[in-house]
Amino acid sequence: MSEHWQKLVEWLPANDDPNRPRITLSTAVPDARTLLMSEFDEHGFYFHTDSRSRKVQQLADDPRVALTFLWPDFTRQLVVLGDAELAPIEEQARAYRARSAYLKQLAWLNDYENAQLPVEERRERWASFTDDPDALQPPATWVGFLVRPHRLTFWEGDPLAASRRTEFTLTDGDWEKSYLPG
Ligand SMILES: Cc1cc2nc3c(=O)[nH]c(=O)nc-3n(C[C@H](O)[C@H](O)[C@H](O)COP(=O)(O)O)c2cc1C
Prior knowledge:
By secondary structure, the chain is α+β, with helices and mostly antiparallel strands. The protein is 27% helix and 39% strand. The protein has one domain (3-12, 19-97, 141-181): Electron Transport, Fmn-binding Protein, Chain A (Pnp Oxidase, Chain A, Roll), CATH 2.30.110.
């Protein structure tokens, strides 16, 4: 197992862990937002969103992204640089199935018109959704992206020493490792 992959497996929760990591997705047009990382594999990191969202237009214009993972106890940070591309259809369907009933229903109701409504009407619209979101296929607006990394920077704090980063950079098909100050 390559060293960078070993570290990813050690640091990130398994794909079937329902507590999904939060990531900050930064786009090349300066913008940023928090997302759930749906899963990761040897190709990269997957997230899912609404095709009408700003980020999807920004990624169509320029697929370069940064993903930032911050551990809740602030002892670890992982920064990924890479390029985003559409995830395979079967991965998108799998990710929808793995989301909670709340998030499945959100994928159906989270539109611009809904956002204009006062809270009572938004709650009414939510409560009157009669379909079982667990039984539904993802809406046509559900879209997944795969971020293929070319740089991985693992930051580790240490109460007894200076923090340090371990960086892996993809160069001519090989991952090169270096250490950087924290
Ligand atoms: C903890 C947390 C998790 C979120 N997860 C997602 C997600 O997985 N997918 C998503 O589209 N938006 C998610 N959001 C909402 C986004 O941060 C963002 O507001 C939304 O996607 C619109 O972003 P955009 O206008 O930059 O496209 C999440 C927000 C928070 C606070």
